[in-house]
Fold these 3 entries.
Entry 1:
Amino acid sequence: MTFGGVVAERPPRVSFTNLRTGETVEMPLFPETLGETVAVNWTKQVILGMSHEQLQYSHTSNHTFDDLEFVFRAQSPADLEAITDGRKFLLSLTLPSADAQGVRDGAPPRILFFWPQLVSMTCVLGNVKITHEQFNKQGASVRFKARLTLEEIRDVRLSSETVREQGTQRSNRGSEE
């Protein structure tokens, strides 16, 4: 796109990459809000005769992103094809691959969740809720909202120092951009 002789780059978008297949889908618009939750879990130790319970650190729950809402709209046949494909992509992230051979392969795929300048994290899709809001004369959905819940998934220990240094930029894509 060119404005007054200056080439305007398309702004970066929120994207999801299926880490099993490598397929990446960019979302059409940034959501208006992004809710993050991290819970610290403490076990209460009761000691007879003590005036209070002792708290012992148990673990920190996985980082979650709740009610992440994306709006999909089609104003042309090409848009309709794109949003239909986006819907199918999101739904495909809820099921294991047909060629799954083991326990790890028998789960839905891991996802790289990328929000420019904010999040680059390996997650799994906890749930997806799609609400169709408008249909064309042929009955195709031309406007729908997809509400997602994502949960971080890690294979290595995460430390306070790592989070202090990197925040939620915990994957390669976040450090490249």
Entry 2:
Amino acid sequence: MILSTQAYLTLKGLEGFKRNAYQDSKGIWTVGHGFTFINNKPVTQSTIINIPEADKLLKQLIEELELQLFPLILVPLNQNQWDALVLFVYNIGIGHFKTSEVLKLLNQKNFYKIPLEMLKWNKCDGVVVKGLENRRETESKLFRRPCNKMISV
């Protein structure tokens, strides 16, 4: 399964685009569509990226992320559930996802609790961040949205 075009556009909207590097809420240098690394090198204060480069890198990162997600998910999902998970994991990172309650609930087929659990990932250093609240709301709504297209991961 691959990320839908609509979810790809949603991800781009959630991440936004910054040509010049900036420090995120944790003080990590970030550029483009939320990139902290480019070509296996950390983003620095002087990093600059253009939109075509950023879009190409985003597609590559999504493909890599999906390959990492496939073996972790042991249950069939619909397209919206897959899309929501990719958006969620793109933001929190695969390492955090592997040990998350979201993954545990998912593989237990406890689909009702997953959106509620996703909403808990709205803090940075213990402080609620409005942008993360909004993002988690978008992801959890997408996860709950009915969809007839089922996939096998």
Entry 3:
Amino acid sequence: MSTIRHAPDYPAGKPSYNVIITLEHMHLIPRRCENFVIPESEDVISINALGFAGMLLVKTDEELEKVKGHGIGLILHEVGLESVHEIQVAGTTDEAVNLVTSHI
């Protein structure tokens, strides 16, 4: 939820997530939108949880080549959100350092 709260351009409405569950972990991946539109052709590719596991469904060889051209990383970057975890950890660390140094 923090990632969505810190995204200034996140669309209004209910948050959208992809969920990936493994034997050891559960990943909730917030996404900005469900679809990626390939700019050259206006083809629409739906990105579900398998997309965030590196498996995108394309309908034709032509779409596959366009996806390869863009790269899966760029496509996922467009539909997903960047994590704010590092910012949160840095904020917590900075707060702790400031608290300790102010008492010295």
